[in-house]
Description:
The protein is of the alpha/beta class.
Amino acid sequence: xxxxxxxxxxxxxxxxxxxxxxxxxxxxxxxxxxxxxxxxxxxxxxxxxxxxxxxxxxxxxxxxxxxxxxxxxxxxxxxxxxxxxxxxxxxxxxxxxxxxxxxxxxxxxxxxxxxxxxxxxxxxxxxxxxxxxxxxxxxxxxxxxxxxxxxxxxxxxxxxxxxxxxxxxxxxxxxxxxxxxxxxxxxxxxxxxxxxxxxx
Length: 200
Ligand code: ATP
Ligand code: MG
């Protein structure tokens, strides 16, 4: 095949691709508040959610964060977003193997959900990150149906991002956008401790 034939073929193929892409862009003409789920065992769930938070702030949107499992309190994202005046709730005590008290975990999660309900009924908030919420389902602290029913009542244009491993099927079915991050390798298993700026 001559170079000009190759060029012609490439152009035809790209033209066809452009028509397909343009048609799908034209089809997507609706706005709505989205429910997003970031799950799976791979790294990048919370950091992706906090990336969307930065995007939203760049658009002067109002945002809030609720963390369901108290992880480390020295994360860069918490320090950074608090400095930006972002509302940041820590609603969990820690992992269930740390508290070793199911009744207390349930009580903490329920109280936490009551706080989330005040956020999701506030139509001035454009984006809410519910970090590590999936553990509340996994350990039976919260009922996924109740949570979904409450989320369904939120303002029409409010976005909610839920992160955490093992998102229940019912949550993924209800969500608009679901991403499962796959663990290919992680430096921790090679003996590298959590690195500031990367892991915290
Ligand atoms: P990140 O906050 O970095 O986006 P994540 O939210 O996807 O990670 P979590 O399950 O919440 O992951 O775990 C948080 C911490 O554990 C982070 O320090 C992260 O680097 C680390 N981590 C995430 N995935 C893995 C993994 N597959 N193996 C080991 N450590 C992990
Ligand atoms: Mg996380």
